[in-house]
Amino acid sequence: MQIYMVGGAVRDALLGLPVKDRDWVVVGATPEALVAQGFLPVGKDFPVFLHPQTKEEYALARTERKTAPGYHGFCVHAAPDVTLEEDLARRDLTINSIAVSAYSTGVRGLFDTNIALNPAAWQAAGALVDPFGGQQDLARKVFRHVTAAFREDPVRILRVARLAARFSDFTVAPDTLQLMQEMVQEGEADHLVAERVWQELAKGLMENTPSRMFEVLRDCGALARLLPEVNQLWGVPQRADYHPEIDTGAHLLLVLDMSARLQASLPVRLACLFHDLGKGTTPPDMLPRHIGHEERSARLLKGICERLRLPTECRELADVVAREHGNIHRSGELGPAALVRLLERCDAFRKPQRFGDVLLACECDARGRLGLSESPYPQGPRLLDALTAAQSVATHLIATTAMATGASGKNIGELIHLARVEAVRASL
Predict the structure, then answer these.
(1) Would you tell me how many other CB atoms lie within 10 Å of the CB of residue 317?
(2) Under a CB-based contact definition with an 8 Å cutoff, are residues 301 and 322 in contact?
(3) Phi, psi (5° rounding) for residue 381?
(4) pLDDT digit string (tens) for 26-38?
(5) How far apart are CA 145 and CA 96, in angstroms?
(6) 8-state DSSP, 145
(7) Which pTM value belongs to this model?
(8) Which residues touch 38 (CB under 8 Å, ≥6 apart)?
(9) What is the spatial distance between Cα 63 and Cα 77, in angstroms, rounded to a whole number?
(10) How do residues 284-297 score in pLDDT, each as one tens digit?
């Protein structure tokens, strides 16, 4: 029985990055042998076991054979005669197909939880197994597929795009990009289920350069299949008072990277991704203006949310940002009554914390414009001050007094609205 650390842990250690999750491959063993040593079987589609102490995953070396479209259509073969090289050959990229012997890194037995992540020692001991040139591609900063079997799993398209968002200075090898394009053209991407698409998109959005994920997806044609509403933003001119030298797609990438720079949460980054969808459907005779794009964005967003089954928190925040980001950008021109109506439409009184996220998404949009990345966004503080002033109104006293005179619920709402307007007026 031989044990190797594989995949991202080895890759990150060789790059000098922190290692978060470690994956292990066991060669020359049977499921019964691992269970006998205390490992817990958890794999449904192939033999995976949890270490009795560390709870890390240990998988038996395996090969895979494509039997049907999509990423579930595989026949898995795991047996003691499967070699490490055969297991590494089924992986996606060369940089993820490097292994290192566990025993050469300080592990003294299966139940030893210590490991020295020391790539220099690995090299000196000859413990690295790299049959596909992964170390060379790491040095060249290239994403390259291991074998043509890459095309058998459409999820790999999403993984490459996600890795590009993490390692933004890496490029996709031309032959790998061509292979991804062929996969899209052959309909492989159409077999991706909504949950998996959302899972990979969410991870990519939370990387330091999320724009790279969408560049790669667009380059291979997958964006047009997975998010056609986003893809159609490219080629559409921006408003003249934005940055006319780039289109709405390029603007979107700037906004996404600004959301990462401001360390926004996932719901905020998703709202940034979808806030301008309506610009892709602006009538040609209206360009470069985008009148009414907010409502069009909200309608398109609804379809995406249903298709990808997005979490409620993400749906609601993205909807508010899509509908109201234009009004929030212009809020410096609004008077007290208009400000209160804007707060009401954003449901800021019931969900003030979410309203703060709405403002952050709008700030990402504004600061994502060329030349404005360091500019302040005064609309945010002004609206938060207006909200604070409006919240100071004793709504329960107004309601109690009004009910004593026989006022209806609608009239009470109007009285509270007017009191909030006056409170905001006094605060400006």
Answers:
(1) 25
(2) yes
(3) -60, -35
(4) 998 888 888 888 8
(5) 10
(6) B
(7) 0.89
(8) 52, 111
(9) 5
(10) 988 888 999 999 99
